[in-house]
Amino acid sequence: MVAAAKVGLRVNMGRTEVIQERGPWRGVEHVEFETLDWVDWFNTERLLGPIGHMLPAEFEELHDHPEEAPALVAGLR
């Protein structure tokens, strides 16, 4: 439950970052596109400390295939 709360907090922080810092907006589609762009940046370019200073996309790949790096994944669980 705590992990879900942290994810929710991150999503809300990201949404606030996108909405407040990247306006003005031309419409809902523009907001949706910019939000997707932010999510892509967050997952593929931003190193995240709580998961070992890795990209979230890399961590997800290791989590999906733990046989490729069992010690790393085990240490982060």
Verbal overview:
The chain is mainly α. It folds into two domains: 1-46; 47-77, no CATH class. 69% of the residues lie in helices and 0% in strands. The chain is elongated, with a radius of gyration of 15 Å. Mean pLDDT is 73; it is low at 1-9.
The arrangement of helices and strands along the chain is HHHH
First-residue to last-residue Cα separation:
15 Å
Judging from the principal axes of the Cα atoms, what is the shape? elongated
Q: How much of the polypeptide forms β-strand, as a percent range?
A: under 5%
Low-confidence regions: 1-9
Rg from alpha-carbon coordinates: 15 Å
Structural class: mainly alpha
> Total helix count?
4
Average of the residue pLDDT scores: 73
The largest sheet is:
none
Count all strands and give the number: 0
| Relative helix content | 55-70%
Question: How many domains in all?
Answer: 2
Condensed summary:
The chain contains four helices and no strands.
